[in-house]
Design brief:
The protein is α+β, with helices and mostly antiparallel strands and 132 residues long. The chain has one domain. It contains two helices and five strands, in the order E-H-E-E-E-E-H. A five-stranded antiparallel β-sheet has the order 1-5-4-3-2, with helices on both faces. Strand 2 and strand 3 form a beta hairpin.
């Protein structure tokens, strides 16, 4: 099942950075913020430049050989964005690709982090969707 998406940005994979305080997330708040701003500039050409509010850490989820961090923020247009950072084995890049990535989307409705991960990334979580 795919959740209703209002807007989304492509996957980013780059070098890891210092973790935000209180988390072990592989990307800093600054990197996530630059990702959002840069993607909006490049992919949302029909809109005026957007501002993004402060990133809020929602939850870390651990599945078999994978970790996910879910962050949220609001843009200047009032949309709620969820930023998902993933680390571990993934089918997105194959065997030679990166094992750290992030992506984001503005969903029509707000979803709990577990529902978001299990629904949007089923190929990257244990088939049962249960945390290990």
């Amino acid at each position: 099942m795919t959740l209703g998406i209002e807007a989304s940005f492509p996957i980013y994979s780059g070098p890891t950075t210092e973790s935000p305080p209180g988390t072990d997330c592989p990307y800093s708040v600054q990197v996530m913020s630059r990702y959002l701003t840069g993607c909006h500039y490049h992919y949302m050409l029909e809109e005026e430049p957007a501002t993004f509010g402060e990133l809020e850490f929602r939850e870390k989820l651990v599945f078999s050989n994978r970790e996910f961090w879910v962050w949220s923020c609001k843009d200047g247009f009032g949309r709620n964005w969820d930023i998902v950072v993933g680390r571990g084995e993934t089918q997105m890049y194959g065997e030679c690709g990166s094992d750290v990535w992030m992506t984001s989307a503005a969903y029509i409705e707000r979803h709990p982090p577990r529902e978001l991960i299990v629904s949007e990334y089923p190929e990257n979580v244990h088939e049962t969707g249960k945390a290990n």
